[in-house]
Amino acid sequence: MLSCRVVLVRPRDPNNIGAAARAMKNFGFTDLAVVAPYAPVWTEAVSAVNATDVLTSARVCDTLAEAVADCTLVVGTADRTRVEWKQPLFTPVDLQRELSANSHRLALVFGSEKHGLTNDDLSFCHRVLSLPTAPDCPSMNLGQAVAVCCYELSRDEAGRSAAPVVTAAAGELETSLKLMLEVLQLSGFLLPGNEPVRTRKLRQSLLQAQLSSQEVSFLCGALRQIKSQLEKGTHET
Amino acid sequence: MLSCRVVLVRPRDPNNIGAAARAMKNFGFTDLAVVAPYAPVWTEAVSAVNATDVLTSARVCDTLAEAVADCTLVVGTADRTRVEWKQPLFTPVDLQRELSANSHRLALVFGSEKHGLTNDDLSFCHRVLSLPTAPDCPSMNLGQAVAVCCYELSRDEAGRSAAPVVTAAAGELETSLKLMLEVLQLSGFLLPGNEPVRTRKLRQSLLQAQLSSQEVSFLCGALRQIKSQLEKGTHET
Fold first, then answer.
1. pLDDT digit string (tens) for A12-59?
2. Which residues pair with A116 in a beta bridge?
3. pLDDT at A179
4. What is the pTM of this model?
5. Which residue from B106, B135, B111, B140 is spatially nearest to B123, judged by alpha carbons?
6. What is the DSSP-derived secondary structure letter of residue A128?
7. Given an 8 Å threshold on Cβ–Cβ distance, is B165 in contact with A27?
8. Which of chain A's residues have a Cβ under 8 Å away from the Cβ of B161?
9. CA B22, B26, B30, B35 torsion: positive or negative?
10. What is the mean pLDDT of residues A192-205?
11. Angle of helix A142-154 versus helix A92-101 axis, rounded to 10
12. DSSP A78-117
C-alpha cells in the first residue's frame, strides 16, 4: 500500500475538513495532518456527528515543515492559474510515473479554500500537482480536490516500486538549507531585502535535486567547513 | 470532446447540487439534468450566490426515462455493497474502454444522498459504474462522486505532461563545479588526498540534480560571493 499523508494547510470550513477525511477513507488513506487550523473550526470538524476516525486521529502541526518532515516526496496542489512561480507542474500522470519509479513517503498538500497554498508553502514542495481542470473554472472545492487526488492515487497500485527509499527526507534538506543560509549570510549574499525570495529559491532547488541522504550529509560537511572558515575571517577582521 | 450528461435523481441537499455542478464545470462538462428534485431544495440550489451557469441552465425532468431519452449509453453509479441486482458492474477502466471503442452520447446517473439509485432507476441504465472505494467506507459524498467521475472522464485529454524545464548544459555545470571547488579549497574542505574523489562526487550530484540554467546561474552567483568573502579573510590573515 502506498504511504500517503494528506496535509490541509489552514483549512477554514469544517464541512470541507470532514469531506476531505471522508474521501481519504473512501480510498483507503488514513494519515491526515492539519497545519495551523483556526481552532473553533477544527473543534467543530472533529466533534461533528459524522467525524471519521481519520479526523479524530489527525495530527495538528504548527508549520508545514513539521507536517512533512519525514516525507520524501512533498506534492503541493494548485490550479495552474495560481502558480506564478517557475516550479515544474506535475500532472497526475507524472505523479503516477514518479511513484512507480521510486519508493516514496508521499505527502499531498492542500491550501486553504480561499487562497490555496502561498508561495512560501509551495517552496516546501518538491512538486506542484495541478489537476487538469477547465481554464474557465480552474479552482476546485477542497473536499472534491482531495477526493479526486485520493482516487487517482488508489487507482493503480500494481506498478509501484518496492525499492528502499534513498531520497533524503524533507527534514534533512531543511538542515542543509539552514547551514546554507548561514554561509550565505556570512558571505553577504543574503541581505534583508532578498532573503525571503532567495530562501524559497534555494529550498526549491534542494527539493528538485532529489538528493540522497548520503549526498545531503556530504553537503552539510562542506557547508560546516565553509562556515567555520568564514567565521574565522570575520573574527580576525 | 466527449458528450456527457450528468443526471441527479432526487437530490436532497442544495450544497451537493451546487458542488456537483461546480465539479462538472471544473472538468469541462455543462449538460446537467435533474430528476424530480424536491422543489424548495432545487430553488435554493439555483438561487445560491455561487450557482454556476451549469446549474441555471439545467433541465428539470419528471422521470429518469425522460432525462436520458436521447443518450446511447446510460451509466448508473452505485457502491458495490448496494447493487443487489445482477447487473454487470463497470469499473472506470471498463467505461474508458467502451468510450474509446464506440462513439456515445453518455449519461452518468447519480442517486439521492441517502438511498442512491433504486433498482427501478438502475433498470434504466445500460451499465452500473462502481468506483473502487474501500470496503469499510464504500459510500461517497454525492458532490465528490460527481467530481471523481468527471475527472475520470476528462483524464484522457489530460494525460499530456506539462512542458519540461530547460535543463542546464554540462558546460554550465562544469563552470559551477569549478567555482565550488575553489570555495571548498579556500575553506579547507578539499585536500590533496580527497580531492579527486570529492570532485567526482560533486560532479555526479550536480548532474543527477538536473538543475535548470536559471538555478545554475543563481548557484554561481552565490559561490562567487562566498569565494570573494573567503579570499578577503585569507588576505587579512
1. 999 999 999 999 999 999 999 999 999 999 999 998 877 789 999 999
2. A112
3. 94
4. 0.75
5. B111
6. E
7. no
8. 91, 93-94
9. negative
10. 88
11. 40
12. --GGG--S--PEEPHHHHHHHHHHS--EEEEEE-BTTTB-
Residue in A52, A132, A218 closest to B201 by CB: A218
Instruction: Please name the member of B137, B148, B209 whose beta carbon is closest to the beta carbon of A25.
Output: B137
Judged by DSSP in three states, B163 sits in: coil
Contact A210 B211 (CB under 8 A): no
DSSP-derived secondary structure letter, A168? P
Distance CA A87, CA A85 (A): 6
d(CA B53, CA A17): 27
* pLDDT for res B95: 87
Q: How many helices (H) and strands (E) are present in chain B, helices listed first? A: 10, 7
Residue found by looking up cell 498538500 in the block: A109
- Neighbouring C-beta atoms of residue A49, cutoff 10 Å: 5
* pLDDT tens string B27-40: 999 999 999 999 99
Angle between helices A142-154 and B142-158 (to 10 degrees): 60
Considering only CB atoms, which chain B residues are within 8 Å of A205? Answer: 209, 211, 215, 218-219
**Which of A27, A52, A222 is opposite residue B189, by nearest beta carbon?**
A222
Label residue B219 left, alpha or beta by phi (over 0 means left) and psi (-120 to 50 means alpha). Answer: alpha
- Find the helix or strand (DSSP H, E) in which B98 lies: helix B92-101
Tell me which amino acid residue A174 is.
Answer: E
Q: Give the ipTM.
A: 0.70
CA atoms within 13 A on the CB side of B20: 34
Residue B97 in this model has a pLDDT that exceeds 60: yes
